């Protein structure tokens, strides 16, 4: 997806040594990020940029709002509040590089795309497990899942378990099931 240029910040041509940018990220923003996880959201963010030397900058990211992620149990979207604060150090260098503490951007370009950092900081601030409050799961979905699990077992299918924990791969049969239920 083509991202609007508002996320591309030209550090070489900052109006002053300190600026604050504001972003309102909506479903189009989250849907356009080619990343699994957050499907929709409504988050307001500010990015404060301060020049710390002729070639280095400190960027303060603050995000507040809500995002929607699939529930680990029923797979329905659930609302998760977002409140994150992160600091990113950026400096000019020869080639682009990125590690935990610092991002280097090529000096002849001088631009940094903050869209991915905004997304990543929000995603990292979320709890690893997202499950609806007790009783809050989609019952229709849970029933279908229950039937589906029984059918799978009757067919002597290989062990079928709920995806759990960090980085769990969604079983392809789950996506099929989601399509069935969407109908
Ligand atoms: Zn649920």
Low-confidence stretches: none
Over the alpha carbons, how many angstroms does the gyration radius reach?
21 Å
Number of strands: 8
Provide the list of bound ligands, each named once: zinc ion
Question: What is the N-to-C order of secondary-structure elements (H for helix, E for strand)?
Answer: EEHEEEEEEHHH
Helix content: 10-25%
Give the strand line-up of the largest sheet. Answer: 2-3-4-5-7-6
Sketch the major β-sheet: 6 strands, mixed
**On the 0-100 scale, what is the average pLDDT?**
85
* SS strand fraction: 35-45%
H/I helix tally: 4
> What does the overall shape look like?
elongated
**Helix/strand structural class:** alpha+beta
Number of domains: 2
Structural description of this entry:
With 183 residues, the protein is an alpha+beta fold. The chain has two domains: 5-125, no CATH class; 139-182, no CATH class. 25% of the residues lie in helices and 37% in strands. It contains four helices and eight strands, in the order E-E-H-E-E-E-E-E-E-H-H-H. The protein has helices spanning 27-32, 114-125, 139-154, 172-182; strands at residues 8-10, 18-25, 40-53, 56-70, 77-93, 97-98, 102-106, 111-113. The strands form two sheets. A six-stranded mixed β-sheet has the order 2-3-4-5-7-6. Strands 1-8 form a two-stranded antiparallel sheet. A hairpin with a 3-residue loop joins strand 6 (97-98) and strand 7 (102-106). The chain is elongated and about 65 Å long. 17% of the residues are buried. The mean pLDDT is 85. Bound molecules: zinc ion. The site of zinc ion has 6 residues, from loops.
């Amino acid at each position: 997806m083509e991202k609007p240029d508002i996320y591309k910040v030209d550090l070489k041509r900052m109006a002053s040594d300190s600026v604050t940018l504001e972003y309102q990220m909506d479903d189009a923003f989250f849907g356009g990020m080619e990343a699994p996880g957050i499907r929709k959201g409504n988050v307001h963010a500010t990015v404060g940029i301060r020049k710390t030397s002729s070639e280095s900058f400190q960027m303060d990211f603050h995000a507040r709002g809500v995002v929607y992620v699939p529930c680990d149990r029923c797979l329905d979207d659930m609302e998760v509040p977002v409140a994150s604060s992160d600091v990113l150090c950026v400096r000019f260098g020869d080639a682009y590089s990125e590690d935990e503490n610092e991002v280097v951007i090529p000096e002849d370009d001088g631009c940094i795309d903050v869209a991915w950092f905004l997304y990543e900081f929000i995603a990292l601030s979320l709890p690893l497990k997202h499950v609806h409050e007790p009783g809050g799961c989609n019952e229709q979905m849970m029933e279908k899942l229950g039937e589906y699990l029984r059918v799978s077992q009757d067919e002597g299918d290989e062990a079928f378990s709920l995806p759990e924990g960090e980085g769990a791969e969604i079983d392809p049969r789950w996506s099929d099931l989601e399509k069935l239920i969407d109908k």
